[in-house]
Structure formats: structure tokens, C-alpha cells
Amino acid sequence: MRFASYWHETSIPFASGTAGPVSGDFEVAVIGAGFTGLSAARKLAQSGVKVALLEAEHVGYGASGRNGGHLNSGHFASFSAAKQHLGEDRARRLWRAYDDSIDMIERIIEDEKIACDFRRGGKIKLASKPSHVAKLQTMCAEIRREVDPSAEWLTREDLRKEVISDAFHGGILSPKSAMMHMGRYANGLAQAAHRYGAAIWERNPVTARERVGNGWRLNTPTGTLTARQVILATDAYTPSTFNYFRRRLMPIASFIIVTRPLTPQEMAAAVPGNRNFTNSLNIANYFRLTPDNRMLFGGRARFSAVSNQKTNVSSGQLLRQQMVGIFPQLANVEIDYCWGGLVGCTQDRYPRAGSAEGVIYSMGYSGHGAQLSTFMGNALADMAMGRKDANPLDGFAWPAVPLNAGNPWFLPIVGTYYRMKDLMP
């Protein structure tokens, strides 16, 4: 078993980064080479803007290269809850943004000829308990009425065509949802941004920043650059240079295991529907087949802000137990990959985007950013070019999390609370 991201290990790394030390004067500097930063850099460069991209590690290192491979339509909450929290107009704009983001990703893949196994497979949100069925049925009816008439309720009998398990009691099918190979998409975005003229420096974290006239000077270990505007796209990996955002974000570890390739018989005996799947628990699991027919199975196996080999080993063991609990028919299937990563969560689990502390930002995707981040990266590019109406989250307040300075010590307590809730009937 390899303790590494399947997406990283099965994609050709980006190799067209800018050689030599960081230097130069730019119109826009983008910090972070995940989907948000890469899509922002691509659009800016495509629009003729002189743009630099600074990445602390390598392209797609963070959540963009460590997630479950889902591009799911809609946001996590029921639409009524979103309306109550966000207001009806913002809730509708955000829901449309999630859907539009999948369309945008599909167009970019076609335009840039990125080979990343994109497929509109749909997603099923599975009722893990009989007591969850009525709530999900209400949610499905509301989604159909308000925002997506293509959503469909599947009975337990319907599910037998999709997932072979006694663990589920019905589910919501969202046919607009898609899937892709995350590593290949990230590297394809980077290649496109480079082709349009973006300067991309990997392994150059921003260690300091200071105001210089009407812009900023950004320091890195190899040199400095200046830029009139800065886009911050680091989410859970935001450095201490930007403490304003760290006080508002809670990095939470998420973990994934990937099996060896399944035989056609094993696939048919587990997930004949070949869709994205999530369950309805508070500490949820998610799963899908990879392009080479491996079972990818993930979840928040521990509530902490730490992901390293020690935590990955113990979390991988727990995830295997959970996978076998759902699919006992996979009990003897070997695990080939295990990894973890950090998810940037806000207190209310809704993302935030706008301008603060002299930078333009989008972050706090709270585990639902694989699709939205491309859309928001393009929105940030539009904002940098003066198109302020591009942001569906404009004006949405973002208070700091009490007693949080980027290392949320209280997460194990939160995890215990949700585990207790999941034990209830």
C-alpha cells in the first residue's frame, strides 16, 4: 500500500514551471495552485493580463489533488436551509454556481483538450437510516420544485440497480453531477495557464508581504515579485502570512483509501450504477469508482487539523472497516493507496469570497470545492479585472471563529458530538 494520493500518483506532473528565482512586476499575483488559483491564472493570462502564480508545494498539492473525485451539483444543505441562512437570492445564485461550475469545467476540458476522464455519472445521496428517508424525500421534492427538476427520489428497491448494499434505504439522484481525474485536470489547467503566458513558480511559499505604492511585494525563499493585485487561493493551506483568514477557517483532515482495480464481477456486485455516492450521516462517507475501476472510499475518519503518515495509517484502517461494513463483498480486496488532506471549513459550512486585507479571495469550500473552485477562480479573475458582479457570495459576512487561530483545538469535541448523533436511530 502506498501512502500517497492516487490522483498525484497516476498523473504526469506539471513540468512547465518558470525556471529560476521568483522575480518581476505583475498586474496580478495568484497564491495557491489548486483549482481556484489555476483557473484564475488561466483566465487572467487568456485575457492578456500579466499574471504570476506562486505555489508552496506543487500544482494540485492540496485539496484539489486529495479529494474524492466528485463534481456534485447543488450545495450541501437543503434549499430551504440555504434560503434561511443566505437569503433567497444568494441561495439561488450559489446553487446555480455549483451547477454552472460543472458546465464550466466540461467546457474548459474540451477547449484545452485535457484528458482527465470527465464523465456525467450523476450522484446519489444515500439514506443511511430509515429515519433519514422522510427528510431526504422532503429535500428531494424541494430541490425539484425550486432549483433542479431533474432530481429524482430512488426507493430502496430502485437502489438495487445502483449500489449493492443493505446499508441504505433510499436516496436522491442528482443526474447533473460528474466525476473526473483530479490530478490530470489540475495539471491540464496549469499547462493551459502556462500556454497563455502565466508565470508559474512551484515550491515557492509566500513568506512575507508588504505594501509597495499601489500594490504588494511578495517574498518567497528564492526571490520577490511585485503585483498591483493579489488573489489568495490557499483555503485550508493558508499560511500565517494571512492570519485574518486563518482565524476564519477551520482546517479539518479528510482521508481516502483506494483499492486495487476491481474485476467486472466485483464492480457489478458492489456499485453497478458507477456514480458518485455519499451517505447521510453527520460524519459521512463518500465513494466512487476510479477511471481504472478501483473503489475510492473516503470520509472524515478523525476530527483534527492533522494529516500525516501516522494519522493516515489509523484513518485508513478505520475507512477499510467502514467500507467492508457497507460492502462485505469487498472484504478480501487489497488497498493500494491511502492518503489524507486538509479541508478548509467555515463555521456555517458555506464558502466565502470577496476582498479583505488587500487581497481578493475565495475559500472555505467546506468539503464541496472540487466543482465550485473552478467557477470561483474565474470569478476572482473577473473581479481582478473590475467585474465586481461576478461573485455570487458578494457581501456575505464572515466572522472569525472564536478561540481559533488556524489550529482548531476543539475539533475532537465536535467530532465526538457528531459521532454520538450518528449512533442515534
TrEMBL record:
A single GO molecular function term of this UniProt record: oxidoreductase activity
Organism from which the protein derives: Rhizobium sophoriradicis
Gene Ontology annotations for the cellular component aspect, listed alphabetically: cytoplasm
Protein name as catalogued: FAD-dependent oxidoreductase
PANTHER family per the UniProt record, alphabetical: FAD DEPENDENT OXIDOREDUCTASE DOMAIN-CONTAINING PROTEIN, SARCOSINE DEHYDROGENASE-RELATED
Domain of life: Bacteria
InterPro entries per the UniProt record, alphabetical: FAD-dep_OxRdtase, FAD/NAD-bd_sf
Pfam families assigned to the protein according to its UniProt record, in alphabetical order: DAO
